[in-house]
Structure formats: C-alpha cells, structure tokens
Design goal:
The chain has ten helices and five strands; from the N terminus they run βαβαβαααααααββα. It is α+β, with helices and mostly antiparallel strands. Helix 7 runs antiparallel to helix 8. The longest helix has 21 residues.
Length: 234
C-alpha cells in the first residue's frame, strides 16, 4: 500500500548506531526498510525494492541508499505460506517455507546493526559524499533470509549467524565477539520501537526520504513508480 507524506521519528532516519548523517555533495534517495529476518514478505518486498532501486538509478543517475531496521512480523498462516510461495515464483525467488525453523531474531539484528554501522563508517570518504556506503548489512541480511527461508537453518544459532556474517564479507572474529556480548541490544530495541511508532505492521514497511511510506509487498513497478514520484517532486 502506498502512503503519502507523513512525519517519521528521527530514530527511523539515523544510522543504526545513532550517529549524525554525513553531509553529501549530491542528491540521493534514502530508504529505510523495516523488515524481519524470518518473514518471507519482508524478503520478497525488499528484493523487489532493491531491483526497482537499481532500475531507478540507471534511469535517473540518482543513487538510492537502503538501510534495514528491525520490525515485528505477524505470525504466518497457511494462507500466507501459499500466497508467499506464489509471489516468490513471480519474482523468481526460491522459497522453502515448509523447512523453516522457528527462531528468535534478536541476535541476528544485533549483527545486522553492527554491519550497518560498519557500512556507514567504512570506505572512501569521497564515496560517502556521494551517498555510496558499504553493502555488508544488505549482504548479511540476504544471507540470513536464504538460510531461514530456503535452507531451513536456525538463524538464532550463533554458529549459523557468525558463518553467514563471514560469507557476507564481515570479520568472523568480530562477529563472534558481538554475539558473545550484549552490544546493540538497545539499538535493536529502539528500531522496533520506531517501527511500531510509524505503524510498520505490513512488512516490508519502507520509508523513502523520511516521509513517503510503502507498506506491505508491492510489485517492482509500484516501487519504481514511488521512487520516481519522490524524484519528480524535488
């Protein structure tokens, strides 16, 4: 569902660690995607949105920075499983929901928050000025979605989490250290509070440029049209 402009809390727009936005020398679009690691709708919607963002950048030359935040997902019904499987076929995304393992996702989101912080603080400062940041958070989230929704892996298992972090290009020893600590617990709780505050019930819930909202699974064309709308109103 497309939503019009509306106020969003500052917690939605900041980096995962709460740091201030760096100044950028070019115009770019920022999208905050509220989603859940164990939710197939989040996986499918985020995948479609990423594809639309890539097409948008090709057409306009305007980069799209996408960050991911934790939100609570509704329990899946049998009807959800059937509809999500059908939607996945349309998007050519493999799903095996029959094999999924129930899992708490607090530790997964602590790793994802650390990855986002690494993305924001790493790389060439000139690239940061262009709105180009690392992709570790996105790569790790894709790894976790595949683990849970395609392979039946337990994404609450520290060994699964650290190995997927390594596959996403993150340092294994640091991932293990994060998991063994209580780092980012507060940050993840704040993300979920922000999700509730903006009404992120239908996932994925995407906030574009701080005020345009996209709720639930949309088509790739709908996502592209929404990005074009943001571009044209500037």
């Amino acid at each position: 569902m497309l939503g019009g402009p509306g106020p969003a809390p500052s917690a939605v727009l900041g980096h995962a660690g709460g740091s201030e936005e760096p100044s950028r020398s070019v115009v770019f679009v920022k999208a905050v995607v509220f989603c859940e690691v164990t939710d197939p709708w989040s996986y499918l919607g985020a995948t479609r949105f990423e594809r639309a963002a890539g097409m948008f950048t090709i057409l306009t030359g305007e980069p799209v920075e996408i960050v991911y935040r934790a939100a609570e997902a509704s329990p899946l019904t049998d009807d959800d499983v059937e509809r999500a499987t059908a939607a996945a076929r349309i998007s050519a995304v493999p799903l095996d929901l029959a094999e999924r393992v129930p899992a708490a996702t607090g530790d997964a989101w602590r790793l994802l928050t650390w990855a986002a912080e690494s993305d924001a603080g790493a790389g060439d400062p000139e690239l940061a000025q262009l709105g180009i940041v690392g992709t570790s958070q996105r790569d790790l989230l894709q790894q976790l979605w595949r683990a849970h929704l395609q392979e039946g892996a337990d994404v609450s298992d520290p060994l699964v989490l650290s190995s997927r972090a390594a596959l996403a290009g993150l340092p294994l020893e640091t991932a293990d250290a994060v998991l063994a600590s209580t780092d980012y617990v507060t940050e993840v709780a704040r993300q979920r509070e922000a999700a509730a505050e903006v009404g992120a019930h239908d996932l994925p819930f995407i906030v574009v440029d701080g005020d345009q909202t996209l709720a639930g699974l949309l088509s790739q064309d709908d996502y592209l049209q929404a990005l074009n709308h943001v571009h044209q109103r500037r």
